[in-house]
Amino acid sequence: FLLGKYLDWEYLLNSDYHQNVESHLLNRSLCLSPLEVSQMKDEDFSQNLILDSSTLLFTHIPAIFFVLHLVYEELKLNTLMGEGIRSLVGLLVQLARDLKLEPYVDHYYRDYPTLVRTAGQVCTIDQGKSIIFTSEPNNCSSGSMLLLIFLLNFYFKIIQKNLLFICDFHSTSVSSLAERLVVWMTNVGFTLRDLETLPFGIALPIRDAIYHCREQPASDWPEAVCLLIGRQDLSKQACEGNLPKGKSVLSSDVPSGTETEEEDDGMNDMNQEVMSLIWSEDLRVQDVRRLLQSAHPVRVNVVQYPELSDHEFIEEKENRLLQLCQRTMALPVGRGMFTLFSYHPVPTEPLPIPKLNLTGRAPPRNTTVDLNSGNIDVPPNMTSWASFHNGVAAGLKIAPASQIDSAWIVYNKPKHAELANEYAGFLMALGLNGHLTKLATLNIHDYLTKGHEMTSIGLLLGVSAAKLGTMDMSITRLLSIHIPALLPPTSTELDVPHNVQVAAVVGIGLVYQGTAHRHTAEVLLAEIGRPPGPEMEYCTDRESYSLAAGLALGMVCLGHGSNLIGMSDLNVPEQLYQYMVGGHRRFQAGMHREKHKSPSYQIKEGDTINVDVTCPGATLALAMIYLKTNNRSIADWLRAPDTMYLLDFVKPEFLLLRTLARCLILWDDILPNSKWVDSNVPQIIRENSISLSEIELPCSEDLNLETLSQAHVYIIAGACLSLGFRFAGSENLSAFNCLHKFAKDFMTYLSAPNASVTGPYNLETCLSVVLLSLAMVMAGSGNLKVLQLCRFLHMKTGGEMNYGFHLAHHMALGLLFLGGGRYSLSTSNSSIAALLCALYPHFPAHSTDNRYHLQALRHLYVLAAEPRLLVPVDVDTNMPCYALLEVTYKGTQWYEQTKEELMAPTLLPELHLLKQIKVKGPRYWELLIDLSKGTQHLKYDGVLYVKLRAGQLSYKEDPMGWQSLLAQTVANRNSEARAFKPETISAFTSDPALLSFAEYFCKPTVNMGQKQEILDLFSSVLYECVTQETPEMLPAYIAMDQAMRRLGRREMSETSELWQIKLVLEFFSSRSHQERLQNHPKRGLFMNSEFLPVVKCTIDNTLDQWLQAGGDVCVHAYLSGQLFEESQLSMLACFLVYHSVPAPWHLPSIGLEGSTSFAELLFKFKQLKMPVRALLRLAPLLLGNPQPMVM
Length: 1191
Hints:
The protein is mainly α.
């Protein structure tokens, strides 16, 4: 644009920029020869300077200037572009002068006083009619500037409402303006890296919003928002929740081959780290492992009396071993509960199944005792079901999230026939944990055609459990083949083993659970009362088949009550009532009536129903159909008889089932106290039942004391069992105390002198039922008192203690430590149905007993287990840790909304009972999980990521909180408290920037001298950043301190840092900030409240000293438009910026002439919005007073 007798090229070659390039190292490295240019003199140039207004771009010079000005303002927002700004200032000043824009020149002077000369060459350019920009410089034009001005205005409450229209928050829950701001910044792509490049004063409101959101974030914010606010715990939680489920951080990393085969007891893969956090004060886990292991020989301790020969002594030891083996064979069911879902198998290795060791060792020589010697009679197939349970226990170790396929399942098939039972159990376990759906249909067909009874049972129950409630037609056809009642009347009669039929019937119930499918319900209703066939085909173990049909019918119509649509003609409740109390057999409807016409040739039942066979199944079917319906008319059917005559017609153990069924129907009436339990006992029994602790029996001719006492204990056991169902997995203290009292009472009754009246078998049964109820309530908790009961009963191996009682006791032990403390029981309808199958209160007399209840059903508890352990995991170390939680319960009809504090890892209550979960401080960042918005944040294997606050130690390292950084400071109330030892900082923060700062700037050295002051300051600042969790403020502290020191030395070449300090001071003194501090008094300070007044006071004193030492002359010269010394340029600019002094051309407009008092000045300067503190300093100059009025 500038043309003269010298060309533009020569003008550029004479510029400072070209000279810098020629002297650059790169220029010499490239061996570039310098250009010869004739030297120009400024005065020559100015004299010969002319304008050529005919050039193309001449008319656009104002627009070009304005664009460059906007670029300049944009660059001021990036601390990394300081050099670029300084290069641009010279050009902008020249153009502003040429365009006669004095406000812009003054604007640049206030920013960079040393780069703007007071006089220079001017080439006047007429702006014409340009309206591109105003006469005053504009500070906000570009996108980033608009954003940041929005932020500042937002925090100073100038245009709060505008932000509401800009942001779109349909997908995220936000409440406060700070949250809206942070979410919007994420939506427009603003990152922490962008924030770090902003000047600290402008970044402060954003950091304050981030700090506010970091304190109280929402659990459903996106990952990007969590990263922006520095909550890596939330971002990882959000990230993990979106990933496909695989191996969890809580999974055990112990490889399967680390233990030798002899040591492998099936419990090597438990997560010891989590269990050591849950039960940190004792060795109960090792005790449970010792009680449940079946891989080692048992100790056979028999004393050889003198009258015993060696042969008799050997027989005595083997008989003792046979007793102990009843217990050993019952252990795998409990072990399966303990190790539930704890293992992720390697696809290239078979699943390790621990041995079922039925040998013994006799002290003192440790000789082996074996049952296969032939000295005593051993029941045939004694170990078949024990091996089946062992296989189930091994298979249930596999977590549902494991990656296995059909080939791996087939790969595990054993080559030896004696291991077939274990593999059958393994298949059932795969169905219970959902993996059997991956098994190819061809393989299922192959297994079933082999005709192996155990394999068929395991496979049918497994596939049914895997297809729970789906009405899957392929599985229905598979099951129907094994149930004669579901085959067409003309079909060929198949020789299906009885136990396989039982498994298939229960399978039908599982597949059709909750569907109220009419045809299935009709068939199952008839099957409860299936009579024995003419050729004795249905004569053995009829009780288990009838029970299975009843359980299956209950599952199909689960919880439907009187709403069984389309079944009114079946009269389901009436038919079940008849099965329960007896009477004439009704005519069988349907296509199978021909089969039931011919009576059995061996069993004479006549036309009456055999209640001993049909009662249990019908009773439980009624309980499941009317579960939780509170239907009193049905419940009254199940009330225990209240006369001696009627009591004689009911087996005492059926009273247990009736009481249980009645209580399950009247679900809301169950109360956790002894009074309620006793209220289930009829008056005649309460008044006449003997106390088992009495020595002498009362005499009575009319009453049968044996019947009364047996009815009493069974009714009590039934009520206790219903209490266990009602409070399953709740750890309800009242329920626990009530059940524990009855368990202790039954143990006392067993040793009472007149226990024989009730019968030891009946008392052992009731004790086992109460113990199971107790374990249900405390499921997964590992309660010590229940463990003591289980351990005591584990040691009882003689007398009435048969295989079934051992099975019950060790199932109770397994429930108590369900899944290694990670799982508990649910009280949903489906879960109660599964538990009724698994905990049916009639236990097998020996290991092959399936007469009353199929043993395989004991494993259906898996369908009621749900993961409820919440484990905090430190997001920085990825290790489980302790954290304090506040759990809020929803209000119910029994209690109002209430809060409870728990130390995690802990078992949560059922999630539908909870309103919210909060991670409490002060050690960890707080986090609120609102469960009303969904429970997906707790679904990922119970992991809750938490972030430790800086300056705090974990609860494991510092249980009482006496070693934290804050606690040490409170304890040491002296002047050195803030200057803590820098080497200790690594224990409180992992931030590399803070660690490096402590290493290089806070360590004292020899002969510190004047540096000691700076070191103390840095240590104090570091302490502040660590304790308030604001490491990002460390550069701001240092920049403010350095700016104060440069101002004190009068070396401020630019005023940008002073601008930022001014913004910081204005922000913290703003009304909105003060209101937030009043509303949240517990919230930590964002910046030290002691540091800012020191900064303000120091700057005020420095500028006042300059004003008194001759600076007032410079200020007067500036305001009057006169020249002043160039050495005062920097300090004058600092004074003008810091005190917001208006430009000289604004002063005439307010009419200062004639002002005689400060009050007049205050009134006239009101429109310029000049601070009073600045006006106090200018008043002496404006009023002609020689002495400045410094504060």
